[in-house]
Amino acid sequence: MSAILLRVSFFFLLLGSSLSVGAQYIPTAVEGANWVLLNSNTPNYADGFTVFAQVIAGDSIVDGRHYKKLYQHRIVYVDTAMGPRLAPPYQVLPERELIGLLRDDTTNQRVYGRVHRFYSESRALSPDTLLQDYNLEVGDTVRGYYFFDFDPFRITVTEKGSINIFGAERPYLSTYGYDFYQGVGSEEYGPLSGGSYFRTNMYSYRLIDYCVGEFSDCDLVLTSTSNLVLAESVRLFPNPAQNEVFLELELKRSHQQAYLTCYDLHGRKVGERKISGLGAGPHRIAFPTADLPAGWYVLRLTLPGGSVVKQFLKTAG
Fold first, then answer.
1. Taking every annotated instance into account, which residue ranges of this chain make up the domain Secretion system C-terminal sorting (predicted)?
2. Closest Cα to residue 75, out of 210, 220, 240, 206?
3. Which DSSP string do the residues of 68-121 spell out, in sequence order?
């Protein structure tokens, strides 16, 4: 991995100097932080990989503590004849799930959070939990990032240093193959460095990319790509729209239930319509847009076995 090569070049320059004393802490919970993560065990689309974007957007106060909201989007991943396509721009599907609340203790250089436990059926977030501790020294036991109430794993810090990665000079900790970068988290799991133990449907992560900024600045594109194989064709009109838009499509078979969901370009759901009794054949499905502010939106039709996403512009009435 490139991080290992970069670390070797910096090691001798950094040897003998204290990298933690006087260094400014780089926080993890910052607005607009975007992680791109590959999960190697969950089936998705054409192969055995799934790619996700984990995004910090917005604030929350719980029990008097201020947190940043961590959402998860699915990214369209296609395995082409030339091999897996992991290069940007990443096509981000508009639905998002709140998977955690993060906060930084900048004084003590620690990251805390409330997240969904993977093996729990409850949708409630965990209590405030230590996720990462960058104020450790070589030989110290790493605690917290496996997210258990107890810690059966005794993992110690084997190396501490600094490296230029993801656009900044970042202090890092190593623990027998796991690296943790300030502001980014684990090179394996990103901000939730023990993600396989939380309710994010993950087993084996790999951090592909990290960027702070708008989607357009970070090679993340809210996609209008269709993976709805149940329809011969799908057309959205009128576009631009004022009072309503229509999806026109032809279904190969009947469906008892479908959903139309509308999102703004930040991934926030702004409207939904449930549709029942769609038979095989042509359909024209309406969605009201009169109450939406002017701007760009994404409309997603979801049926059992597939979905389609279309983008439209709402103009002022």
1. 236-311
2. 220
3. EEEEEEEEE--EETTEE--PSSEEEEEEEEEEEEEEEETTTTEEEEEE-BTT-S
Residue position matching structure tokens 């900048």: 106
Task: Sort strands 129-133 and 33-39 into parallel, antiparallel or unpaired.
Answer: unpaired
User: 149 Cβ partners below 8 Å, 6+ apart?
Assistant: none
- Amino acid, res. 240: P
Distance of alpha carbon 283 from alpha carbon 234, whole angstroms: 10
For residue 279, give both structure tokens: 């038979």
Tell which residue, 183, 181, 215, 200, has the closest CA to residue 50.
200
**For residues 254 and 174, what is the distance between their CA atoms, to the nearest angstrom?**
54
The per-residue DSSP string of 7-57 comes to HHHHHHHHTTS-SSTTPPP--S--TTEEEEEEESSS-BTTBS-EEEEEEEE
Query: For the ranges 5-19, 276-290, 292-306, which has the lowest average pLDDT?
Result: 5-19
The H or E element spanning position 269 is strand 269-278
C-alpha span between 36 and 45 (Å, rounded): 17
pLDDT at 206: 78
Buried b (16+ CB within 10 A) or exposed e, 208-225: bbbbbeebeebebbbbbe
Q: Which amino acid is at 39?
A: N
CA–CA dist 134, 261 (Å, integer): 41
Residue 242 in contact with residue 315, Cβ under 8 Å? yes
Are the CB atoms for 207 and 186 separated by under 8 Å? yes
Sign of the torsion formed by the C-alpha atoms of 291, 292, 294 and 298:
negative
Range of lowest pLDDT (222-226, 234-238, 249-253): 222-226
pLDDT exceeds cutoff 60 at 5: no
Q: Which has the minimum average pLDDT: 21-35, 83-97, 194-208, 264-278?
A: 194-208
